[in-house]
Amino acid sequence: MSRLPFELFLALRYLRPKRTFVSVITLISILGVSLGVAVLIIVISVMSGFDHDLREKILGFSAHLTVTESGSTMKNYRQAAAVIAANKNVRGVSPFVLGPVLVETQGDTNRPALQDAPMLRGVDPATEIKVSELPKQITTGTFDLSGRGLVVGVDFANNLRLQVGDTLSIYSAREIKKMKDARDQKKEVTIMPDDYEVRGIFDAGYYEYNARVIVCSLANAQDLYDLNDSVHGLFVKLNDPYQAALVKKQLEQALNFKMNEGTFYAQSWMDQNSGILSALIVEKNVMFYLLFFIVLVAALCILSAQITFVIQKTREIGMLKALGATKLQISGIFLAQSAIIGIIGVASGYGLGMLAVAYRNEFLHFMRNATGWELFPASVYGFGELPALITPSDVAIICVSSFVICILGGLLPAVRAGSLKPVEALRYE
Question: Based on the domain organization, do 200 and 78 belong to the same domain?
Answer without folding.
Answer: yes
